[in-house]
Structures are given as C-alpha cells and as structure tokens.
Specification:
Rossmann fold, five-stranded parallel β-sheet, alpha/beta, binds 3-phosphoglyceric acid
Length: about 325
C-alpha cells in the first residue's frame, strides 16, 4: 500500500500539465482532440477559455509546463508567473503575440503550427471578396471576380491557398514576397510581381498576408494604397499593425472609389465605419475560426508539446 502511494506521488510529480489558454475558444472537437493527445501521453490538461482579465491568465499559468494559445498575449509578466513553463505553442501562424526575447530569457521554447489554418483564412478572403463586389448583398447590381487582377502580398501558406482558390474563380493572380524567389511564385502558376509597388499599381484587389514585424508595421500606407487603380479593394486578413491607419483614413476620404475590407478591427474602427459601403470589418478575427482549422492547429500544437517534452523535438521552434 505504502509503495503504491509513493508510486502515485512520483507519477504525479512527473506528469506535465498543459494549459489551453484561449480568449477566443477553439471549436469543441478541437478541444476534445487535444485532450485525447495530452491525456494519452500521460499529461494533464487544463482549460482557460473566454477569459476577460489578464489576472485569470496569470493565475492559470502558475503551475503549468506547457501552454497552447491562439492570439493570446504571452509577455514577460505571464512568463514570470509561469514558473514551471517549458513550452508555448501558438496554434496558428503568426507569433507576434509572444514576446520571443522574454521567452528565450526564461528558457521557454516557442513554436507555431505553420500552414494548419491557412485554407480557412484563404477561404475567408474569397468569401469577403464576393461579399464586397456584390455590394455587401444590399440588393444593388455588383460585379464579378472572374478576370479581375488579384495581388497577393507575401506568398506563404495563406497566400498560396488564396492563389489556388482565386484561380478557380478565374482571377488573374500576381504575388510579391520579399523572402520568396520569383521562380517559386511562378512555379505555383502565379505571376511574380517585381516589387510591392508593382503589385499595388497593377492589381484591382490586393490581399495582405504579411506578418507584423518591425519591417512591416505601418508599411501599408497612403502612397502604396493610393497607387491602386480606380475601384481598388484592399483586403487584410493578416494583422492590423501593418496598416498605417491615419494615412489610410486620409486616403479613403480623398479617393471615394477605394474600399478597405478587414478581418482585424482597426484601432480607429469608428472612423473607418464612416466610409459606409467602402469599409467592412468582421466583429472578431474569423479567418482561422473553423472547426477544421481549430482541429488542425490544435492537434498539431498538442503533438508538438508531447514531442518536445518527451523527446526534445524542436521542429517549428521560432525563438532559436
Ligand atoms: C494566425 O496567425 O494563425 C491567425 O491570425 C489566426 O489567429 P487566431 O488563432 O487568433 O484566430
């Protein structure tokens, strides 16, 4: 009897605790799938969903070894509060919500799950574009996407999926990516624009798929968007930080032919909302919000945590 108690205690001490911390929750099947993987590995799973205060996150991370997040912010304060933390996996592509330097200083591995929600975001892009060119379904005659020129800024997983679907609509697709060689873009059957400027100047619609980095923040400015043809549409399913909001507002006031469609509510949402019929924002970022994307990204995150804790696998680590 004494032996078995001792065994249980040792086992408990060894068992890793994984927290899902999602202000915007995963679909139920994704949570069930994560639970199966985490518990199947002999770990414990805790769930913090729809939290409204940072204090709730600080309390929940106190004793965990691993955290699965979405756009949830992991900063130095959270890392300080998570004394046992070894790994954070951002179930998704962009990890600008994690303070990588602070994580490295705390010896915490950070990973993302690239590509897992790319199709969901790409489908939303085309859905929003149909909605836009049909005048937000207000009953007035709209236009079609077939034959229109679509410019994709950054040819990563989402950009590639947007190109694939847009070609199905019969659109002429171009892309520019500062980090992807033109040959790789052309190999995907997409015209490689020579520059970001060319993409904006030549396309009817520009879709943003750049991450929020020091280089890209506020880079989508008046000069760039203002170079678009009459009736141009800018669609943003990437990050609000890449937009120079004051300049875009100024431009929309001057160019009454331009439209701005976004999946990430701008800081100046109320000012943009004044451009009725030329501005639309989803109420909450919806790009990756499908059962399939949640399951793909959530399960990948769970497997990456098990792989790291049990075998030290660091594939997809982003703070190397
Ligand atoms: C991503 O970077 O993967 C997307 O922006 C999805 O973000 P979300 O998980 O908050 O929906």
């Amino acid at each position: 009897m004494g032996y078995s108690w001792q065994f249980v205690l040792i086992n408990k001490r060894k068992m890793a605790k994984v927290l899902i911390a999602t202000e915007k929750p995963f679909a139920a099947p994704a949570v069930a799938g994560i639970k199966e993987i985490i518990e199947g590995a002999g770990f414990e799973l805790a769930l913090l969903e729809k939290y409204t205060e940072k204090a709730q996150l600080l309390e929940a991370v106190a004793d965990v070894d691993a955290i699965i997040i979405r756009s949830d912010k992991i900063d130095a304060e959270v890392l300080d509060a998570a004394k046992n933390l070894k790994i954070v996996v951002r179930a998704g592509a962009g990890y600008d919500n994690v303070d990588l330097d602070a994580a490295t200083a705390h010896k915490v591995v950070v990973m993302n799950t690239p590509g897992q929600n790319a199709n969901a975001v790409a489908e939303l892009v085309l859905g929003l574009l149909v909605f836009t060119v049909r005048n937000f379904y207000n009953g007035k005659a709209g236009s079609e996407l077939m034959g229109k020129k679509l410019g994709i800024l950054a040819f990563g997983n989402v950009g590639r999926n947007v190109a694939r679907i847009a070609k199905g609509f019969g659109m002429e697709v171009s892309a520019y990516d500062a980090y992807c060689p033109a040959e790789a873009i052309e190999a995907a059957g997409v015209h490689a624009a020579a520059s970001q400027a060319e993409l904006f100047e030549t396309c009817d619609i520009v879709s943003l798929h750049i991450p929020a980095t020091a280089e890209t923040k506020q880079s989508i400015n008046k000069a760039l968007v203002g170079s678009m043809k009459k009736g141009g549409i800018l669609i943003n399913t990437a990050r609000k930080e890449v937009i120079n909001e004051p300049e875009l507002l100024e431009l929309l006031a001057e160019r009454t032919d331009l439209k701005y469609i976004t999946d990430i509510k701008p800081d100046a949402d109320a000012d943009f909302a004044k451009f009725e019929g030329r501005y639309f924002s989803t109420p909450k970022k919806m790009g990756a919000q499908t059962a399939e994307a949640n399951t793909n990204a959530g399960l990948a995150a769970a497997n990456q945590i098990v792989g790291y804790i049990k075998e030290g696998i660091t594939k997809f680590q982003v703070n190397k």
